[in-house]
Design goal:
4 copies of one chain form a homotetramer. The first copy, chain A, is an all-alpha fold. The first copy, chain A, has 9 helices and no strands. In chain A, α1 packs across α2 and α1 crosses α6. Chains C and D meet through α7, α8 and α9 of C and α7, α8 and α9 of D. Chain B binds a DNA duplex (21 and 21 nucleotides) through α2 and α3.
DNA sequence: AATGAATGAGAGTTCATTCAT
DNA sequence: AATGAATGAACTCTCATTCAT
């Protein structure tokens, strides 16, 4: 068992945890198996993490810290709202599509309990929804999105659509490229499914909308 | 100790289970607590269910059997595709919006593990996606939906949007009426978020789409 | 399921119990399985027996009551000590050899615990040893057995030999006729294994012998 | 809480198990009681043994491994067949007579079920019977045992006699010295109970004998 | 007498976490 | 820092027994 003395131990533990959580599920995952896969002793895990739960939480925080950061940067260079939405969708799908185990942890294991869900929402998702809201608000300002767009609903629909793409991809197990779905999803989001000219806008899209996760 | 002979025992156990699963999470839920809440002895549970997991599975199957059935019937009387989509959305949101504990079980506990997820997908979700697909295919036939609509993507977007509405509602904990979101969600799905006339349809919504859960 | 109203129910329960105890072992035997095999309801068993243990105890008592009785009668007609010992051995081996399940219960299940063993010894075995002692004492009196025979040891050796024949027969599973072993066992007991004339009786067979089960 | 590092833990657990099994019986014995008596935590037992049953099985194997070995060695120095049979009997009785709890486990607990019995027979008893067979065959060869001796029957009678001595000693609870019974038992086995010169050998000791446990 | 649904006490085993080395 | 043996709390499920019918 190679035991590099460099302190990538923490990283090795996190990587091992992703695999074990993804394959066994959080509850069925054994700390000792994570340790074995990381090439460390059981007790060593507790030098880096407070508890089994802490591994999951830190895993999430670390991945998120990296990608939310990158996402904001990626948007800087993009001029139009559709381009920005596409970039967001693509990054969302590519990050999770690149590592099925990580995707399983994010789509399944992290939603183990309302407790995790709330944490999940409170930290990263909040930011994500705020970002979507900004982009859409700007889109409304520059005329690329409907003025009457209910952004609360729209941000959730957008996120929900992407989220379901990822979940379907995991469950389906068919191994297609998740990232390529960004364009059709965003196109559908922008254009709608209705035939052009056919949908009379009988009523403005609900005025009094609901707050929700991500809502401020 | 009263020995109620009525055979609502099974039902009482399921109702108690919904509450306990919703509040504690499936793993942390104790069979003895379900029994206590149902007013039966621990052992009695095992006269009606094979195991703790069986309670969750049966819970799901029973609720689904009822609502998938009702949903198909509800669609019979509806003429237009938008009306049908709205009916589907409304039922989806109202059923879960009417019982927060049940919603938690469906949104959170049932997704505990890929094992449950797969079961979930294989049984009910499959039907649900098939139904959405039919309605959309018909919509394309009668001209109310775009001919170039990628139904694989569209059904997932539609489902994902509703699913996220429910999850947000649970997590947000703000207690608004979930059912009222059906109309804005469906409207957004049909019209799209883009300003009318502004989105040049640069490319047809992706031809070669991905299969996935619900895909046939 | 035929349910003869005659009150052979008790007998049917005992017969079912022999089978179930023999096949599963006393601890693994389920009262409900005995009930099923006997064609009665679980609760009915408790109208005839106080407990699961009571079934085993009564089973033993009933079989014994019958055979100890018969054994004493059978000896009446026999003149010589060797004939009497052969009759005892033959009955012992034939009774158990005729019903493997019963033999299993007597050889294995009834020796589950020192508690059963002590009961077993206190009731029937005591009588059995007393009978053997009588026959041997008489044999010493009429000159057919050695005068210096230590009867305490001899009765145990005789019983132990038969007991081992039965156990071997059960475990071996070869299905030969157990009863036919009576003659060689008794012959060996009487003649000894030593070559005639070769064994110098260096010392009288232990004067101060041990008391033991069956011993008074 | 002292954390004794010495690795006699395994031995302490086995010793505790002998006591608890002997006093309570295998089924009624509680793992937690064995742990308490051994001065270890419940879980520690499972670092050394796979299960409660494994404790019993290992207990048996370990004791046997030691004594079968010693028995063969002890026979090397002995010239005559009677001396060898006496040595076997003495060792058998002394080993079990030295530790009543161990004797209870071997005579009673290990015969809990046909499953244990078969294991018991298949492993050690087989060897024991083979050894007895060898010694007796040799005795026939050197003229110290009858030529017509049915060794199948004789080995079982010999073993059964010793086995019953042990069982009687346990049940009787009178605390005499078990080892001293070796001589009278072996003498009886060799000389027989019949008065010399009185038993006309009417028929040769059964030719077609039964196979059985220990039989090849 | 008979039923069988209901009871509820009870225990083997696992595994996250600790801590002496 | 690292180890891994030891800990002990915790929980599902079984099944002998009861008792309302």
């Amino acid at each position: 068992m190679p035991r590099p003395r460099t302190e990538d131990k923490r990283k090795r533990i996190l990587e091992a945890a992703v695999k074990v959580f993804a394959r066994k599920g959080y509850f069925a995952a054994r700390v000792s198996e994570i340790a074995r896969k990381a090439g460390v002793a059981d007790g060593t895990i507790y030098l880096y993490f407070r508890s089994k739960e802490d591994i999951l939480v830190k895993l999430f925080d670390e991945v998120m810290a990296e990608h939310v950061q990158q996402m904001r940067e990626a948007l800087r260079g993009l001029a139009t709202t559709p381009a920005r939405l596409r970039a967001i969708a693509e990054r969302h799908l590519r990050v999770l599509g690149a590592n099925r185990d990580l995707a399983v942890v994010f789509q399944v294991e992290l939603r183990q309990s309302t407790r995790f869900m709330e944490r999940f929402t409170a930290s990263w998702l909040q930011d994500y929804f705020a970002l979507l809201n900004e982009v859409m608000e700007e889109g409304q300002g520059n005329g690329s999105l409907r003025e009457d767009l209910n952004r609360k609903v729209a941000t959730k629909v957008f996120f929900g659509a992407l989220d379901e793409m990822v979940t379907s991809w995991i469950i389906g197990g068919k191994g297609y490229d998740l990232g390529q779905l960004a364009i059709p999803v965003v196109d559908l989001f922008l254009q709608g499914a209705g035939a052009p000219g056919r949908i009379a806008r009988v009523r403005p899209a609900l005025a009094g909308a609901a707050p929700g996760r991500g809502g401020k």
